[in-house]
Design a protein that fits this description.
- The chain is mainly alpha-helical and 306 residues long.
- 75% of the residues lie in helices and 1% in strands.
- It has one domain.
- The chain contains 14 helices and two strands.
- A two-stranded antiparallel sheet has the order 1-2.
- Helix 2 crosses helix 12.
- It is globular.
Length: 306
């Protein structure tokens, strides 16, 4: 009901961005939270979704919905290709490898004329319609509902994945990879499943972001900062939980937009300083994130009533 009640442009824009990044963080959670493979290169998949949607819209005239679907398939395939070598690594070595993949992709994109090089791609403004995924710039209700639908779809996919055999296997891999392998779990195969699913939904979020912003800047969609932001949203909100990404996005995206709007250029970078402080607090005080913090408060309140 939010977009029907709140008509302020700042808060409507904030809500759309929160839902888009909550979807991306939900996708990250499949790999980083539930499977235990901490990736700092998910901007790679986010950019695949954004660039595929934008490129097919500009050069082929395809509807953005089709471009987003194609981007999701390409991202899943890229996830498998990337996963084959990087899953030979563990712990922080795996995380470093994902950063390297993202940086290589960034260099290739900024030197590719068809993808706009370093200046990026400006998407054409089509007539307002659901098919074109273009809605009024004065009232962002349409974008909000689409973003909400994507978040719901991503959350349902994660819930379904975690309540089937693959979900139990990836949890076993996260808790003790060697023990899972000894018990007969095909570790690499299920890591690749998690990577492909995570990459596809991250790409969908990237495609929607491109249609919302109508501009694809490689310094935004394919930056290391983007990868870190996606991961931190899930970690702060609560990795291994369905609601964690939404809560984390609500806090971090609000912080980002507030500092950059009200502090203008002087606010650039302040959000990252606060990000670091929040993550340290979570690591020390409540490793389960804000979801765990709220659960603890609820338990304390219940104990006090008894």
């Amino acid at each position: 009901m939010f977009p029907f009640v709140v008509k302020d442009a700042f808060w409507q824009n904030l809500a759309v961005l929160v839902l888009i990044y909550a979807s991306a963080a939900t996708a990250w959670n499949i790999l980083g939270g539930f499977t235990g493979q901490i990736s700092f290169g998910h901007a790679f998949f986010f950019a695949i979704g954004a660039y595929t949607t934008g490129y097919l819209l500009i050069h082929q005239g395809w509807l953005p919905w089709i471009g987003m679907a194609v981007g999701a398939v390409l991202a899943a395939a890229a996830g498998v290709v990337v996963g084959l070598p990087v899953f030979r690594l563990r712990s922080h070595y795996f995380s470093i490898a994902t950063i390297a993949v993202q940086q290589v992709a960034f260099i290739l994109v900024v030197n590719n004329v068809a993808l706009g090089s370093a200046t990026g791609l400006e998407l054409p403004l089509k007539p307002e319609s659901v098919a074109n995924l273009v809605f009024s710039i004065r009232d962002k209700t349409g974008y909000h509902l689409v973003a909400l639908g994507l978040f719901g779809l991503a959350s349902f996919a994660v819930w379904l994945f975690m309540h089937t055999r693959p979900g139990y296997y990836v949890r076993a891999i996260r808790d003790d990879e060697d023990a899972a392998r000894v018990m007969g779990v095909p570790v690499r195969r299920y890591k690749l499943y998690a990577m492909a699913l995570s990459a596809s939904f991250t790409a969908l979020a990237g495609g929607l972001y491109a249609m919302y912003a109508l501009f694809i800047d490689p310094n935004v969609v394919l930056s290391i900062g983007q990868s870190i932001q996606i991961a931190l949203i899930a970690i702060l909100g609560g990795a291994r939980s369905l609601w964690g990404p939404l809560i984390g996005a609500a806090v971090l995206i609000w912080l980002q937009q507030t500092t950059r709007v009200y502090l203008s250029g002087g606010g650039n970078g302040i959000d990252f300083v606060v990000y670091g402080a929040l993550v340290m607090m979570v690591a020390i005080l409540e490793p389960r994130g804000l979801v765990g913090f709220f659960s603890r408060l609820k338990s304390i309140a219940a104990t006090g009533r008894r």
